[in-house]
Design brief:
Blueprint (H helix, E strand, L loop, with lengths): L10 E6 L2 H11 L3 E3 L9 E5 L5 E6 L10 E5 L3 H10 L5 E2 L6 E7 L5 E7 L5 H4 L6
Parallel strand pairs: 1-4, 5-8
Antiparallel strand pairs: 2-3, 3-4, 6-7, 7-8
């Protein structure tokens, strides 16, 4: 019996060290809208909202997280246009392995946080695109 009903990802939190650089990247390069953080917060945090109401929370800490394959993904309508946009902004593109029916790549924010940019050409279908067994 399923008792917990999860509906969607609400937000993702990312560690940053430089407020100005992070704000510029998430607002000006990614084009996200900054919204006020909760007034009860007594620490430095920037909140950015996507069109569907999901948010990305940037939490200031003295040191960035260690570099790793950890990431979050942002969906785009046109991955090729997104590549051109990032290149025009001077952001390096990191190509990656294929997933059936999608075009994707990675970029890094100023603190080295990995962000996947993904365009689904067809909805993901585990029956045709998935592994034959679960890990």
């Amino acid at each position: 019996m399923r008792t917990l009903q999860l509906s969607r990802l609400d937000h993702c939190s990312v560690i940053i060290t430089d407020i100005a650089k992070a704000r510029s990247f998430y607002r000006d390069v990614l084009g996200l809208r900054e919204i006020p953080k909760p007034k009860t917060f007594d620490f430095v945090a920037l909140w950015f909202q996507l069109d569907d109401g999901q948010t990305i929370h940037l939490l200031q800490k003295p040191q960035a997280d260690p570099r790793s394959p950890r990431h979050f993904a942002l969906r785009v309508a046109d991955a090729q246009a997104a590549r051109k946009h990032f290149r025009a902004c001077g952001i390096d593109i990191l190509e990656t392995g294929p997933i059936p029916h999608c075009d994707r790549f990675f970029v890094m924010d100023p603190d080295g946080n990995r962000i996947e940019i993904i365009q689904w050409l067809q909805p993901y279908d585990p029956a045709t695109s998935g592994a034959t067994a679960l890990d």
